[in-house]
């Protein structure tokens, strides 16, 4: 199962699941373009990975900004020569019950989580079509399948990513580009640390495997989907959730 | 044939992996030159770049043959 020397772009790579994905891809010998919101956090994450400058480079980018996405991906293509794998992982939450949710809360989450994936996918489409191969992996969430009180915006964006995954899989299949989604369940990260204790306990008690997941357990699925071995899989959503949602 | 036409045909040959003698004016991209819908989108985008023109969607829908492409570029580039 190899991603050796493949050029992988990971958005939201400076922390949480994204950083773990970068760590795994680097360990497997991939070249990684790590995208973070801020220059400083992106460069710190690159340092933490401890790889050579040839193998990992950091970029600051707001994925919701289509023009900026175009510029940064042009830079990535010039730095690495091509893009083999795109992991649309950047995501934010603005949790609150809908009664209190502001229009800005909705718009911001949609812009980063859903439009960000669209912007980045558009940026790699043509280079991947030219290569006649590619892997695009969208990080969704089990709440995109189940819904979650207090996360109307986040759940809608993550459900949207699944429809987006299926549509892009169909559009790009003739060019040997596969597009899949991964839906993590309750994974221990800074994002889930922000959840209240009561909500966390309620969540954990519903997980058949009886524990929170680790980010590296999600990264293992990404490493597989990024590899040549996943060639016959496209348009699918894979839950990495300890059995929380069984379809 | 104009030099613009030659250049358009060059782009078509490269994008669709066909030869210049297949690029008759009436040759249809999809039916005659083996293109699929993505190829035609790529071709239109390539023509836009090469000739520095903008081809609106409603116009590009009607560029179906080699002759259509040459005519559009000659009239708009």
TrEMBL record, chain B:
For the Carrier domain, which residue ranges apply? 2-77
Coiled-coil residues: none
Query: Where does it localize?
Result: Cytoplasm
Task: Summarize the PTM comment.
Answer: 4'-phosphopantetheine is transferred from CoA to a specific serine of apo-ACP by acpS.
Q: What does this protein do?
A: Carrier of the growing fatty acid chain in fatty acid biosynthesis.
- Keywords, ordered alphabetically: Cytoplasm, Fatty acid biosynthesis, Fatty acid metabolism, Lipid biosynthesis, Lipid metabolism, Phosphopantetheine, Phosphoprotein
User: Which residues are modified to O-(pantetheine 4'-phosphoryl)serine?
Assistant: 37
What cellular-component terms does GO give this entry?
cytosol; membrane
By what name is this protein known? Acyl carrier protein
Q: Give GO BP annotations, semicolon-separated.
A: lipid A biosynthetic process
Q: Which SUPFAM superfamilies match?
A: ACP-like (SSF47336)
Pathway it belongs to? Lipid metabolism; fatty acid biosynthesis
Entries under Pfam families matching the protein: PP-binding (PF00550)
Q: Which GO terms describe its molecular function?
A: acyl binding; acyl carrier activity
Family statement drawn from the similarity comment of this UniProt entry: Belongs to the acyl carrier protein (ACP) family.
């Amino acid at each position: 199962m190899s991603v050796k020397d493949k050029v992988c772009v990971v958005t939201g790579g400076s922390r949480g699941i994204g950083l773990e994905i970068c760590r795994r891809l680097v360990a497997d010998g991939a070249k990684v373009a790590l995208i973070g919101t801020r220059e400083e956090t992106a460069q710190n994450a690159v340092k933490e990975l401890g790889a050579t400058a040839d193998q990992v480079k950091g970029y600051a980018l707001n994925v919701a900004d289509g023009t900026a996405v175009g510029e940064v991906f042009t830079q990535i293509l010039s730095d690495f020569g091509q893009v083999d794998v795109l992991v649309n992982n950047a995501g934010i939450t603005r949790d609150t019950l809908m009664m209190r949710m502001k229009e800005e809360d909705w718009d911001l989450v949609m812009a980063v989580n859903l439009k960000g994936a669209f912007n980045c996918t558009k940026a790699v489409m043509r280079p991947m079509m030219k290569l006649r191969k590619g892997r695009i992996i969208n990080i969704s969430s089990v709440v995109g399948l189940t819904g979650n009180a207090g996360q109307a915006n986040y759940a809608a964006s993550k459900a949207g990513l699944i429809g987006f995954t299926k549509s892009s899989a169909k559009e790009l299949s003739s060019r040997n580009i596969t597009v899949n989604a991964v839906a993590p369940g309750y994974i221990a990260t800074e994002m889930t640390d922000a959840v209240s204790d009561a909500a966390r306990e309620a969540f954990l008690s519903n997980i058949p495997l009886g524990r929170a997941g680790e980010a590296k357990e999600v990264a293992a699925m990404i490493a597989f989907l990024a590899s040549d071995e996943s060639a016959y899989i496209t348009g699918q959503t894979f839950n990495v959730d300890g059995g929380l949602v069984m379809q | 044939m104009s030099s613009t036409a030659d250049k358009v045909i060059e782009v078509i040959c490269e994008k669709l992996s066909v030869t210049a003698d297949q690029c008759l004016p009436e040759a249809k991209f999809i039916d005659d030159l083996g293109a699929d819908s993505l190829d035609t989108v790529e071709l239109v985008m390539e023509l836009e770049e090469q000739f520095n023109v903008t081809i609106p969607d409603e116009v590009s829908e009607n560029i179906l043959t080699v002759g259509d492409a040459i005519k559009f570029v000659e009239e708009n580039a």
